[in-house]
Amino acid sequence: MEIQLTIKKLDVLNEVGRATAYYGTASGEGAPGYDTAAATPDDREMLEVYWRGAKNDILRLSQRFTPLELSAAPNNQTSAEHEDFTLSLTMPSTWDINTTEGLRNAMRLYLIHDITAKWSARAIPAAAEGMAAQSTADASTITQLLHHTKRPTE
User: Fold this and answer.
1) Residues whose CB is less than 8 angstroms from the CB of residue 29 and which lie 6 or more positions away in sequence, other chains included
2) For site-directed labelling of 53, which of 45, 98, 112, 154 has its Cα 20 to 30 A away?
3) pLDDT band per the 50, 70, 90 thresholds, residue 35
4) Is the Cβ–Cβ distance between 111 and 59 less than 8 Å?
């Protein structure tokens, strides 16, 4: 069974911007904390590096279900802000199709949390540790959903 999951890059990066702005404001340092932690459009080049890394992590997690040429594809160094991350998976017939949306959402959350953790590591280590733990939990959820099977029917 073939499924296709699409995640909008701009939505992920905007969410990272909101999260880092929140952590910068909540750091208690006022404007300096905000300026240091908040990811802005000027930071897109560095965020792009983190985006590609997080996408590659998802490809590694799902490589059993991706075509060989996709999982071995080189990392594209040029990337448009409005590109989508589309992943086609070949799932076994026993896989529960009802988990498709949950899988897409877990991948989206992984991208957000992983990028936010890497970005925040230089400015707010306490926030980065929490986000890194959350991205690890998201990766575990992705793995569980990829291997979730239908209940047998009699």
Assistant:
1) 36
2) 98
3) low
4) no
Domain residue spans of the chain: 2-146
For residues 62, 66, 72 and 76, what is the CA-based torsion angle, rounded to 10 degrees? -80
CB 98, CB 1: distance < 8 Å: no
Contact present, 19 and 116 (Cβ < 8 Å): yes
DSSP string, 71-126: HTPPPPS---TT-EEEEEEE--TTB-GGGHHHHHHHHHHHHHHHHHHHHHTTT-HH
Q: Which two tokens stand for residue 147?
A: 């291997």
Is the pLDDT assigned to residue 83 strictly greater than 50? yes
